[in-house]
Amino acid sequence: MVGPAVKREAVAHLRAVMGLSERRACQIVAIDRTTVR
């Protein structure tokens, strides 16, 4: 199981590399947006 910190890093990576929105990146990683903010 992956913790929230790793998922936050994954969201940041998707946003930086692929130019995705925060909402879309969170959907892909399966993390709630409030956890990322």
From TrEMBL:
Protein's UniProt name: Transposase
Taxonomic lineage from the root: unclassified sequences, metagenomes, ecological metagenomes
